[in-house]
Design goal:
It is built from no helices and 5 strands. The chain is mostly beta strands and 84 residues long.
Length: 84
């Protein structure tokens, strides 16, 4: 059985409550997985363990303007193929 693990330090948002959090850990057991998330509420630091179905990954913000991408950063699934 293979699991797709969300990387450490990824920004996520809860499905209920719309709270921004950061992934700080993962617990893998036989057949299931939970993520440890870190967040702030009213200036107070908190952590919790929740299931993957309880949050979504936040899209990364990019600066406006022209960007020179390194070849390792280009995702081939998003490339446009031209027919000659």
């Amino acid at each position: 059985m293979a699991f797709k693990i969300i990387p450490f330090n990824t920004k996520v948002k809860t499905v209920i409550g719309d709270i921004e959090m950061i992934v700080i850990g993962v617990c893998i057991r036989e057949g299931w997985m939970e993520y440890q998330l870190s967040y702030f509420v009213n200036g107070e630091h908190k952590t919790c363990w929740i299931n993957r179905s309880e949050f979504v990954i936040c899209p990364t913000k990019k600066k406006a303007g022209f960007v020179n991408y390194e070849t390792e950063d280009i995702d081939p699934t998003h490339m446009i193929e031209l027919n000659d």
